[in-house]
Amino acid sequence: MAITLTERAARHVQNFLSKNNGNGLRVGVKPTGCSGFMYVVQPVQDVKEHDQVFVSQGVQIVVDDESMKYMDGTEVDFAREGLNEGFKFQNPNVKATCGCGESFSL
Question: Are strands 59-64 and 75-81 parallel, antiparallel or unpaired?
Fold first, then answer.
């Protein structure tokens, strides 16, 4: 499978990358929080040996092999809710999220 972006997320990422000279978006997970894992999103300049690369909506998405185990099939959206904005993850592998919504378990 793959990691995909919605049109809204792709527009946001493309705008950000054009201002910050990024080549793509690195998406992953790290162990943390009250439920076990947290998403990490950052611009990427280069692809490493243990990365998988996908293109969605014209944006290169880079995911390390370890994160891919937890994120396969995830759709990334970008939403504005009042004064808050950020990425929203529709991950079919998530079993539960914490009360604050910052971490998840598998």
Answer: unpaired
